[in-house]
Design goal:
The complex is a heterodimer of chains A (115) and B (108). Chain A is mainly beta and 115 residues long. Helix content of chain A is 0%, strand content 52%. Chain A is built from no helices and eleven strands. Chain B is mainly beta and 108 residues long. Classes of the chains: A mainly beta (115), B mainly beta (108). The A-B interface holds A 2, 4, 33, 35, 42-45, 48, 55-56, 58, 90, 92, 97-101, 103-109 and B 31-32, 34, 38, 42-46, 49, 87, 90-101.
């Protein structure tokens, strides 16, 4: 158990819909990262927040957005869903902002299926 | 972003050491070398990381070449629970970029 929690575990929805994935970081961690893992693309970094502020952006689509709240939990919002958005979405956390130098702790993931 | 090259898959016998290679010829002076692994149906798990010197922890050892253009993750005594995808990653500043990794099969 990494200490990072994600809800829900599974989510099934239809094309065109909007969903929200939630992540609670490990106690004391200020950074939250979101990743998407699909069969053909592997693990793709989406976005990072540090202490409520956006810190780094990866391959995140404009239809996707995220935020980190004062209690440090984070939400990833996916809108106008397409079939290709079906994937595992992982959240990770770390103590500091510079993820390149420190370990990240990953949650169990949310499996999103878009029908 | 600096890239890493790993074999797609490897096999090893249970209770024997495993050496997982990684090439990163374009590594910069500030890049750390990280290894993560992903067990089936789980999120990635941190294994080890280092900058220049070899590193040891309870899970594994990391051997870094003197020119830092390659590294090797060493599992000293593989068990069936070590069967996973192992990612060698270069991390600097804001993010770490995952590649395809090496799928490690452990034979009983």
């Amino acid at each position: 158990d990494s200490g990072v929690t994600q809800t829900p575990k599974h989510l099934i929805t239809a094309t065109g819909q909007r969903v929200t994935l939630r992540c609670s970081p490990r106690s004391g961690d200020l950074s939250v990262y979101w990743y998407q893992q699909s069969l053909d693309q592997g693990l793709q970094f989406l976005i990072q927040y540090y202490n409520g502020e956006e810190r780094a952006k990866g391959n995140i689509l404009e239809r996707f957005s995220a935020q980190q709240f004062p209690d440090l939990h984070s939400e990833l919002n996916l809108s106008s869903l397409e079939l290709g958005d079906s994937a595992l979405y992982f959240c990770a956390s770390s103590v500091v902002w510079a993820s390149g130098y420190n370990e990240q702790f990953f949650g169990p993931g949310t499996r999103l299926t878009v029908l | 972003d600096a890239k890493t090259t790993q074999p797609n898959s490897m096999e090893s016998n249970e209770e024997e050491p495993v050496h997982l290679p990684c090439n990163h010829s374009t590594i910069s002076g500030t890049d750390y070398i990280h290894w993560y692994r992903q067990l089936p149906s789980q999120g990635p798990e941190y294994v080890i990381h280092g900058l220049t010197s070899n590193v040891n922890n309870r899970m594994a050892s990391l051997a870094i070449a003197e020119d830092r253009k390659s590294s090797t993750l060493i599992l000293h005594r593989a068990t069936l629970r070590d069967a996973a995808v192992y990612y060698c990653i270069l991390g600097s500043d804001d993010k770490i970029i995952f590649g395809k990794g090496t799928r490690l099969h452990i034979l009983p």
